[in-house]
Predict the structure.
Amino acid sequence: MSYDTQVPPAAPRVMRNGLGTAALILGIIGTVSGFMPFLFWLAGILGVIALILGLVGKGRVKRGEADNKGVALTGAILGLVSLILSVVGIVIVVTAVSDAADKIDKAIQDSAPKDSTPKDPAAKNLADGDSSVYDDDLKVTVSDPKPYSPGEFAVGHTEGNKAYQVTVVIENGGKKEFDAVGVSLSARAGKNGVEAEQILDDKNSLTFKGSILPGKKATLTVAFDAPKDARNLTVEVNPGFDYDASQWELKVG
């Protein structure tokens, strides 16, 4: 009696290629995401996963548990590329945000009201020839008053009063054009501080006109009508709505 002792063939080993395939898929998606604006974060996440899965899949190939070495290796490489693209995306976004913030800050600074307080703390008691300099480098100077004889058709002069002529110079030392139209002038005379009316004739003007470019200056000659017994003339110049006025205490008579 005989017995068949033949050993049955072993079942074929099942290859575990899933990790390599997953690495390839995630690597492709991560790489594509890396080229899309604001998806750098997704590229980074998928890149890390794809790199890990690809390396683990490559390890399985070495152990004979998988046979898709090329797929696993490609997935790992694409995962690394996704990480690099993610870092590049972060740098680009951070740089863009920083540049935008700088532009916004600059716009805010340019549109903010300028500091228009005179640098000179004694800008309320200036003498003839003194200058009031503002923080935007606008410089205002008022000259020594000179006796003046108004013309026959002058407006603003009262018979019996005395007239005095002064020169006002505005120099724009800043970097922006200065609108001189908004400059206002006024004066008071005598111990009682009565209003000294401006005299308008062919040799005097009431205010500045136009604008003053950076580095340029404008000169205005004005005349004021003062009581006959006045010994002082207080001239006030206000460069504009955003500025503080400065005063000059001038001796006359």
